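Posting for a labmate who doesn't have an account.
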Amino acid sequence: MDPIVLGALAVAVLIVLFLVLSKPKPFLEGKRQTLALTEIKELSHDTKLFRFALPNAKQSFGLPLGKHVKIFCPNPTGVVAGQWNGRDDPEDGATEIQRSYTPTSSESDLGVADLVIKVYAGGVVDRFPDGGKMSQYFGRLKVGDNLALQGPVGMIEYKGRGSWVYGRRPIKAKAVGMMAGGTGITPMYQIVSAALADAGDKTTWKLIFANQTEGDILIRSELEALAAKHPDRFSLHYTLDRPPSKWAGSTGFITQDMIAEHLPTPGPDTLVVMCGPPPMIKFACKQNLDALGYDKKMQLAF
């Protein structure tokens, strides 16, 4: 072979090796790690975006689509010892608690990880004198504080272009229905925003998003921008427990009629994923899906 060609090949190989070796590995390692809080953005009176810096500005977070991270914080004491929000506290006596969260940032957002948190303050609602344990911990964080976390964790992963894995079970779906309640929107947003960014992903997505009030709708502008940009691939429907006057969406819990109208019809190529409070998953989601004939194996809860 011509020496010039050999030289060019050698240079090309060296460039590729340099690019591969110089790229930092993803942040998440499956063990407990910490991140520093660098920015707090007020999104509403009780919702904030917390931005954490990764060790390397060129580093990805390392969270597969559909997975989440565990967040750790000290276990607070309730207004009444041994109770939390008027009920026996199953975590009483523990020094630390953990909760699961999905970032709203994507793997293409190098060097940062964003968490959108709704802070449930104690004493605001009579039924919840203690508020939310973890959310109030976030509410007290200041720029420069460290957050303890671990991941990736979770049974569900979206591989892209209609391919899913639940545990070790592969799933293929052409149409995906989504039901989210409150902060349960974050894994849905993570998945659908990545899928819609891939022109080769022909999966269609239909989302029902349930909240208490209109002001509780998280990442609303981002969701509506996706629906406007991809009307043939993504549809969005809201339901509120306490809607304002002249509300265009639905009212109340998710019902069979709501599912039949706003989610894809049951079938071998239809998957439904859901995330929200346990009572919502059990009664508003799974119970209605079963009654409408959706395959139980094609119903996945985060």
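Reply:
Got it, the structure tokens are right above this. The chain is about 25% helix and 30% strand.
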